Hints:
This protein has helices at 7-13, 49-57, 109-121, 131-138, 144-155, 159-169, 172-196, 207-226, 228-235, 250-258, 310-324, 341-347, 367-380, 398-413, 425-442, 447-464, 471-478, and strands at residues 28-31, 39-45, 70-76, 79-89, 100-106, 125-126, 238-244, 276-284, 287-295, 328-334, 354-360, 387-389. 45% of the residues lie in helices and 16% in strands. By secondary structure, it is an alpha/beta fold.
Amino acid sequence: MPQVSQQASDLQKQKHVDSAGYLSNKTIAALCTPTGGAITVLRLSGSNAIKIAEKLSSFKIDLNAERRAKRVWLSDQNKKIDDAVMVPYFGPRSFTGEDVVEFFLHGSPIIAQKVLDLIFAEGARLALPGEFSFRAVKNGKMQLSQAEAIKELIAAENDFALDLALEKLSGSQHELIDKIRTDLMQLATLSEVGIDFSDQDIDEVSLPRLRGRLGQIISMLENLGGSFDRGKRFTDGIPVSLFGLPNAGKSSFFNALLGEDRSIVSDIAGTTRDVVREKLNLKGLKGYVTYKLSDTAGLRGLKVVQDADKIEQIGIQKTIQTASSSDLVLIVVDGLSPNLEEVESFLQSIQGKKTIGIITKKDLVDEASQEEIKLFLLSKLSEVKSWTWISSTTLEGVSDVAKEMAIIAEDILIRKPGEVVITQVEHLQAIERSLKCLKEANDCADLVLFATTVRHGMGELGALIGETLPDDVLGKIFSDFCIGK
């Protein structure tokens, strides 16, 4: 029952304890790890954290005990509950900036529930999702971008997302945004100086000179906003689609990559009517990469519309749309019957896309014929630079395709040293709002209006790093975090 996920249910039962929610100053507690393992970590934060911990442990916590692990018996009216380890932290030298106590309990669910019950009986309440991180931001222990990096760190599914989250946690994104805001502040100040001394001819604060400086800032923000699409590929995965004629072996290869039967495999043509999507992690040369893999409907009927089966035709149209929005397209051809008429037609609609050619049913074709068919495909489909024979039955060649996918993926994900990439849609929206103001300022013919509009653009970036966000908006951001973080 008292798993971390169960705390959401407990939270509903205790809403009446404190209606202030994230704005509350009450002492909060939550499990930071699931129960059922060897150890469960429980965190307590707030003005009464030390007092509650002392009562549960019958141990006087003083400055000499701070940050030192102490083995204690946790008890309820002299009835022992657990032989635990307790580590106290005094504010502001703690994660949240408040007094904090962390208990390392044995992993039994009943132990965790009993300790939480005792803590709640002393006036604390269950922490809201992300409330520990919320208090850390509110108390100046970290920036909003760093707190959001914690969420991304927990959710990281591949090496690239992990590295990006660690960089954000170090403050790299905040430093860049803060520099841009500082430049805007200087620009606004100079423009206001220009207003005060408008009767004097000072080139440094003239409107043309200020516009030149603003143009550089706009360019920096446009580059940052433009990184969003690529940033989502770090966290969500690289879109990859499979296409080919019906029964070419797309679904079999799809299942072989996943290591499970996710797509229906049948001798009946047109079995896949819709796009089947799955996430997949593959190890590349520089670490694990996440792919958003899409198995699409066969290409039968791309030229000749068959009204008798409109459902299949809708599936084919989705195939075209999916491939057009993918970064990588896997072209699957039947090694026993390499019919290319529909494939050639389809390739025209995805010109410029990165492609990998796959020839299926290797186990059914002799080596001499394999080489002949590969040369035939290279001559007929010049858009595809290489072809790999695979067998979804024996899995031969599947790892070779995975390696090719990794090389292309890592080329897409490579970053320049020091390059900041945004991944949150809220960050993109803040940048877009700021750019709208700054571009309006750039068109201003009046210095007063220029200064006012620049300050508005600067304020929009303040929202991105949390400095000008009201507490209720901050609470909405943190509601997507884990309870206990």
